[in-house]
């Protein structure tokens, strides 16, 4: 409860500062509307079926992309983490692809697969892949060799070591990668909707409000909604991780 109160207090202070800066004329109200105006627009938007459809489209694309990225990155990370020779053989390819920004691939994706939902899902999968993959590989690098040797001395085979030693150790790291990828993939989904001019989605709504109606209040309202989705997702995953992997944090604290 203390954490929730602190978060709410910080948010209230930020909104109050925003309101005062605009009301006192430090910033032109036509450029940045007051916080009360933007919050009022958000309430109105959630009463509109079209905006709810945009929000649902963005959330569904984001969840689908995150699920696909996890389904690809976790098994791939297990392979690369378990077999050093395979990791060395694929290092050049991975290090070449990883730094490429997803946004830079938008023109290529639009040309190859079109501007439908597949485009933003594909780009979000690409962006979300790397945090999960690297956290999975890192988890295998951090396994204490003594644990593996102990399991082998007890007659546990390779499959047993993977399921009883490696995977339980890697689970908290993989979950952290998923939490990081959740934020990244949401950013990419909304950005792709905005840049590609999607007909449905929060990014498309922001684009239409900015260039069509020129409504800064609606632009900020859509942006705040996207940020709120990201905050709730991160907060929910963090609380879930604290509950599932409480033992991991305790062990880390003891070692530290």
Rg is 22 Å
CATH architecture: Orthogonal Bundle
CATH fold descriptor: MetI-like fold
Count of DSSP strands: 0
Helix content: over 70%
Transmembrane segments: 59-84, 96-115, 121-140, 183-206, 218-237
Pfam families: BPD_transp_1 (PF00528)
Organism: Saccharomonospora piscinae
Membrane topology: Multi-pass membrane protein
In short:
With 256 residues, this protein is mainly α. The protein contains eleven helices and no strands.
Report on this model:
Residues 250-256 have low confidence and may be disordered. It is globular and about 70 Å long. It is mainly alpha-helical and 256 residues long. The chain has one domain: MetI-like (MetI-like fold, Orthogonal Bundle). The two termini are 27 Å apart. The protein has 11 helices and no strands. Keywords: Cell membrane, Membrane, Transmembrane, Transmembrane helix, Transport. It is found in: Cell membrane. Its main location: membrane.
Write the layout of secondary structure elements.
Elements: H1 2-23, H2 35-45, H3 49-82, H4 84-97, H5 106-113, H6 117-141, H7 145-153, H8 158-196, H9 202-213, H10 216-244, H11 246-255
Helix pairs in contact: 2-10, 3-4, 3-6, 3-8, 3-9, 5-6, 6-8, 7-8, 8-9, 8-10, 9-10
């Amino acid at each position: 409860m203390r954490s929730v109160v602190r978060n709410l207090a910080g948010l209230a202070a930020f909104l109050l500062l925003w309101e005062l800066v605009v009301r006192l004329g430090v910033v032109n109200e036509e450029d940045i509307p007051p916080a009360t105006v933007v919050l009022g627009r958000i309430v109105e938007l959630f009463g509109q079926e079209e905006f709810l459809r945009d929000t649902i489209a963005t959330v569904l694309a984001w969840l689908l992309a995150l699920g696909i990225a996890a389904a690809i990155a976790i098994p791939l990370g297990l392979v690369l983490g378990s077999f050093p020779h395979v990791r060395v053989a694929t290092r050049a390819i991975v290090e070449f692809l990883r730094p490429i920004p997803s946004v830079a691939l938008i023109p290529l994706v639009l040309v190859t697969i079109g501007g439908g939902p597949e485009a933003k899902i594909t780009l979000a999968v690409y962006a979300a892949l790397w945090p999960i993959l690297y956290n999975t590989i890192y988890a295998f690098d951090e396994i204490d060799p003594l644990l593996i040797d102990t399991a082998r001395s007890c007659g546990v085979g390779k499959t047993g070591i993977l399921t009883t030693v490696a995977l339980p150790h890697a689970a908290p790291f993989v979950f952290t990668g998923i939490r990081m990828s959740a934020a990244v993939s949401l950013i990419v989904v909304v950005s792709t909707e905005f840049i590609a001019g999607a007909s449905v989605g929060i990014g498309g709504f922001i684009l239409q409000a900015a260039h069509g109606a020129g409504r800064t209040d609606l632009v900020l309202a859509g942006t705040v909604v996207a940020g709120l989705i990201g905050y709730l997702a991160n907060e929910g995953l963090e609380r879930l991780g604290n509950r599932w992997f409480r033992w991991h944090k305790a062990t880390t604290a003891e070692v530290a």
